[in-house]
Specification:
four-stranded antiparallel beta sheet, 2 domains, single chain, alpha+beta, Helicase, Ruva Protein, domain 3, 8 helices, globular
Length: about 260
């Protein structure tokens, strides 16, 4: 599932293509057709990312919502009227580009109150300027659950997924099985700061690279293979060569090094 850096990067890339003038909205697949009629031809003043959610603020007061889920993706084609490929749930078209959305877990149009209800269920998003880190720190500090499970709870932190969870815990040397409330406040503060740094870099690079490139250069072929993490999807720890172990936390396999994370 795409993590929070993906949605924020989508806002960054799509804003100059969509925001400002009228946008033609359609549903070649048909499942979004009724909602598309509500906003077709309207102007789009802004696009917003919050965690793994995207919100499209239309000039008639309605808000479009997209959650990519496990397989959702956008395809951007420069210029208008690109040929439809596959099952396209939503098409956004301007003279600058055609943007097709396929496979989202949610794609609908609703009110600003509906948007607020979704955001109210989420924890702070480390990539937002209005984030309140102390809210996330307090929620982590009060949980008996393993820290590796808490980090995937979107009610605690919005936008953190499996890769950033594993890599942040590794960088801080924290065993994912440690109860969150047993982590010191300093640990939790550094956890927030580490996630902010990693997620911002993910937006900038448009991919996940968590390793220190000064110590571990990433040749082109290695980057293509995804060799850009310390423990995630690795057989051995990049730092000490200990075999990486996994434990299921939050319904996902959490990768960790039993030597570096004590």
């Amino acid at each position: 599932m795409p993590e929070g850096h993906v949605t924020h990067r989508i806002v960054r890339d799509h804003t100059p293509l969509l925001v400002g003038g009228p946008v033609r909205v359609s549903s070649p697949q048909g499942r979004f057709a009724a909602d598309a009629e509500l906003i077709d031809g309207r102007a789009l003043p802004s696009i917003e990312a919050y965690g793994k959610h995207l919100f499209y603020w239309w000039d008639n007061g309605l808000v479009g919502h997209v959650h990519l889920g496990l397989i959702g993706k956008f395809r951007v084609t420069p210029g208008p009227a690109a040929a439809v490929q596959g099952q396209v749930r939503m098409r956004l078209a301007t003279p600058l580009a055609t943007i097709d959305l396929s496979g989202p877990s949610d794609c609908r149009v609703f009110t600003a109150d509906d948007r607020d209800a979704i955001v109210a269920r989420l924890g702070p998003d480390p990539l937002r300027r209005d984030a309140r880190p102390q809210v996330a720190i307090e929620r982590m500090a009060s949980s008996r659950q393993p820290i590796g499970q808490v980090l995937l709870d979107q009610r605690v932190l919005a936008g953190v997924g499996n890769v950033f969870r594993a890599e942040a815990l590794f960088v801080l040397g924290i065993d994912p099985r440690r109860p969150a409330r047993d982590c010191s406040r300093d640990d939790l503060q550094r956890m927030w700061e580490t996630l902010v740094t990693m997620l911002r870099k993910g937006v900038k690079d448009n991919r996940i690279v968590t390793i220190d490139r000064r110590r571990f250069p990433v040749p082109g072929e290695a980057a293509k293979r995804g060799d850009t993490t310390y423990v995630y999807h690795r057989d051995v720890c990049l730092e000490c060569a200990t075999p990486v172990q996994t434990i299921e936390l939050g319904g996902r396999a959490c990768y960790y090094c039993p030597t570096c994370q004590t």
